[in-house]
């Protein structure tokens, strides 16, 4: 049996919240979390899993947790192996003002489930832009990898639905510039440019 430990998933300032969460929900699983990646976050090194396999029914036990603690759990479950669970959890923290949500939002942008990417793009105007820009400034390599993944997943899975067109030729219907991942990357690029002024 594997127990998902939270201390490496969130900044050290949330240690008390982590204790409460671990005492409230069962984070055990038959499988170890998959391919964690490291990011820098406000002087902390975080290790965020690509996928976790804990029971999603644990999300029913969050009533006694604070808002911050709930958002921590939703962030963790946004790494769940089930895409429906990832989308459901993203909706709970995508507009959060808690800065620890930024790496989780960015990671979801770089995945292949278009419904999840659409949630991020649809909420772009009300997500915490300062947190996202600050996180990307601290982790430019994570953003670059995410940006590359957006274009790669478009190429692998969505090229037919959002075809590329030749310069000077008006597209008929939607084109690759309408793909929500590419639109979000362009939106983030504009945010990053405006913060360099």
Summarize the structure.
With about 200 residues, the protein is mostly helical.
Keywords, please?
mainly alpha; two-stranded antiparallel sheet; single chain; 4 strands; 197 residues
Walk me through the structure.
The chain has helices spanning 15-24, 67-77, 83-93, 102-109, 114-122, 129-138, 140-158, 180-195, and strands at residues 2-3, 28-29, 37-41, 44-48. With 197 residues, the chain is mainly alpha-helical. Strands 1-2 form a two-stranded antiparallel ribbon. A two-stranded antiparallel ribbon has the order 3-4. α2 (67-77) runs antiparallel to α3 (83-93), α5 crosses α8 and α6 (129-138) packs across α7. It is globular, with a radius of gyration of 18 Å. The N and C termini lie far apart (51 Å).
- Contiguous low-pLDDT stretches (5 residues minimum) are none
Average pLDDT number: 92
How is the main sheet built?
A: 2 strands, antiparallel
Shape: globular
Number of helices: 8
Rg of Cα set = 18 Å
Report, as a whole number of angstroms, the end-to-end distance: 51 Å
Walk me through the topology.
Elements (H helix, E strand, L loop, with lengths): L1 E2 L11 H10 L3 E2 L7 E5 L2 E5 L18 H11 L5 H11 L8 H8 L4 H9 L6 H10 L1 H19 L21 H16 L2
Antiparallel strand pairs: 1-2, 3-4
């Amino acid at each position: 049996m594997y127990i998902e430990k939270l201390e490496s998933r969130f900044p050290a300032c949330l240690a008390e919240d982590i204790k409460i969460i671990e005492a409230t929900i069962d984070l055990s699983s038959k499988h170890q979390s998959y391919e964690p990646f490291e990011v820098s976050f406000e002087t902390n090194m975080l290790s965020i899993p690509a996928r976790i396999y804990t029971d999603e029914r644990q999300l029913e036990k969050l009533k006694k947790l604070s808002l911050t603690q709930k958002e921590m759990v939703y962030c963790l479950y946004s790494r769940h192996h089930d895409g429906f669970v990832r989308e459901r959890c993203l909706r709970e923290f995508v507009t959060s003002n808690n800065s620890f949500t930024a790496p989780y939002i960015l990671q979801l942008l770089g995945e292949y489930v278009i419904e999840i990417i659409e949630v991020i793009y649809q909420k772009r105007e009300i997500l915490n832009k300062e947190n996202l820009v600050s996180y990307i400034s601290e982790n430019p390599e994570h953003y670059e990898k995410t940006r590359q993944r957006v274009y790669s997943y478009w190429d692998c899975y969505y090229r037919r639905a959002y075809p590329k067109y030749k310069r000077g030729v008006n597209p008929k219907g939607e084109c690759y510039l309408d793909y929500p991942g590419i639109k979000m990357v362009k939106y983030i690029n504009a945010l990053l440019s405006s913060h360099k002024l």
